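Final report, Chapter 2: Outcomes

The project's central promise was a pipeline that accepts a single protein chain and returns its three-dimensional structure in a standardized token representation, suitable for archiving and comparison. That pipeline is now operational. To close this chapter, we reproduce one record exactly as it appears in the project archive, with the input sequence first and the structure output second.
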Amino acid sequence: MSPRAYHCWTAHEESKLRQMTLDGCTAAEIASALGVSHGAVANKREHIRAGPMMMARETIRPVAEYRAPDGQPLAEVFAPEDSRDETDDEFWARFLKTARRSVAKAAAQRYATIRIASDVPIAICISSDWHISSEGTDMDALHEMARFVAKTPGMYALGGGDMTDNAIKHRGGNIHGVRDESRALDLTVALFLGKLLGLVSGNHDDWTKMIAGCDMLQLMTKRHRIHYAPDEMLWTVEIVSPHDPEIVTASYLIATRHQWRRHSNLNPTHACKTWLQEQQMNWETIPDVLAIGHNHVAAIGSEQYAGRDVHYLRMGSFQKDSAYARAKGFADYRPTAPTVVLPPTREQRVQCFSDPQDAIQHMRGWRDVAASLSPA
């Protein structure tokens, strides 16, 4: 009997599929090893990326909705309407309605809530400036980071823009490179196995939208069911009790964007500070973490602000070499993905690390201490 696309997966088979995916095996290789069809493997991997995911005792349920101030759902696309035979009053009524809904959508898509059930610390790895390209990008380091997040219990990821190099702006007609980069981005995102929760767009990502009128990054996030915002995201991370998901034990706010206009080359975290100073009146609460990419210089800082700890992150880049960087005299830095460790209660303090590997050592130490204090 030939393998069927509709296969009833056992826990052992699913575990084997996950491990082989992390090891870089193709769908055909997995299908051959497990004796199932290529379609069954593809369907299962799509399901793992799309649905709620169980990692040890944590569950992740991203929630993102676009809603108007009156609570009504907003449409994804506002198609232009035919304005012929309209009176001036009818035209303005339609025009202003569309404008108001567009403004409401832009505000709503900046906010998303993530609920994670856990009684131990969880980690959010924030990376940006992947600049996926066949020229000058450390793809090995990028894939290593993605697989590390995927296989580490309690660790998740956010993206901060410039996910592909997308040189269409500088090299007109470079359609072949754009196509390959888009495919490479799609495959890279799949390596996270559903643990890349969302991302914002960067200036390189926006070039296709500006020149061709097509937001390739938004299309990719829809395929993977990842929350997407074109410029700024405010992530509310709620840690809930594993025994009762209605009990929120701690709540944190992480603000991410690709760039901010008030930037200093002499002080990388200056952009985070001025962003907070100018925008805090528009936010319901002061963020615990503000993260900005773009300048390819990784930095971590923190300070007491309004009586609480506020952490500032600047993400590094996975682009190791480019003609632009050489011409401008930019230094060569190692790729980094700053990682925030969030305790299950507010009694402990948030910790920030330069890399996910450093963060996991802290998480393991916390869990070892917690285990030693638990009754036998």
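Archive annotation: The domain at 111-373 is CATH 3.60.21.10 (Purple Acid Phosphatase; chain A, domain 2).
This record, like all others produced under the grant, will remain available to the consortium after the project formally closes.
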